[in-house]
Amino acid sequence: MVDVTTEALKSVKKALTEFQTDIDGISARSQNSANDILGSCKDAVNSAKSDVAESETKISRLTSKLEELESKINQYCEEIDSLNNRIPKIERSINSLEIEISDLNSQLSALYSQLSNCDDEDLREQIQEQINACQNQLNRCYFEKEDFENELRNIDNKKNQLQQQLNSAKSEKASVESELSKEKNRCNKLKNKLDRLKTAFSRVESDMSAYVSATKHFETASSDSTQSNLSSVDLCISSIEDYLSVSL
């Protein structure tokens, strides 16, 4: 009967020793697990931060592009307005020259008529001088009129070119505005995701700290209790062995 009791106590001691082995380092293992979990959470938070930063950079780039396009559009509109304001002045100058040309042609016609009906050599010379002067003035008017007409054609070509550039800039602006709006919405969603991850990380960090603290407390308490129980079992076994030796 005593031998059975001794064997039972030895089995209890073995179980307690195995339990002691199992709980040794449990707090360290829980700390490592907690660190791994927190590391994964931090990686998720950092990845979300990177996504937000990337989106904000894109928004900044698109905003700058939009401002650049708006500046170009204003510039094109101002140039077109300036050309449109120039056109009536040129047309008035052409009309004025056409009137002057008509008058000069009338004068030339009259002078040539006088010249054909004049027999006086001195008077013919004077009329010819007037004809020459009138012809020079007429040539000047034709040249000026041609210059103004060329300017009108150039303005028309320039307006067409500017209008094409303006239409292209407006089209690109609409595209950039659409992309910017989408990116702002995406950025808001990424920021909301980041806020949720930060909140979750804070909660996990607190829970992991509590978990590690609990395992440390459990390890210490269990170790002390197991050690006390082992000492009690050893004492019982020693007493039984002492008893047996005396009985023998």
The main sheet comes to: none
Element order: H for helix, E for strand = HHH
Poorly predicted tracts of residues = none
Distance between the termini: 15 Å
Approximate strand percentage? under 5%
Number of helices: 3
The 3D shape can be described as rod-shaped
Name the average pLDDT: 81
What would you call the structural class?
A: mainly alpha
Find the count of extended strands (DSSP E, 2+ residues): 0
Overall helicity: over 70%
The radius of gyration is 53 Å
What's the short story on this structure?
The chain is mainly α and 248 residues long. Helices cover 97% and strands 0% of the residues.
Please, could you describe this protein's structure?
- By secondary structure, the chain is mainly α.
- The protein is rod-shaped and about 145 Å long.
- It has three helices and no strands.
- It has helices spanning 2-23, 26-116, 121-247.
- 97% of the residues lie in helices and 0% in strands.
Question: What are the main properties of this structure?
Answer:
97% helix, mainly alpha, 248 residues
Give a topology summary.
Layout: H1 2-23, H2 26-116, H3 121-247
Helix pairs in contact: 1-3, 2-3
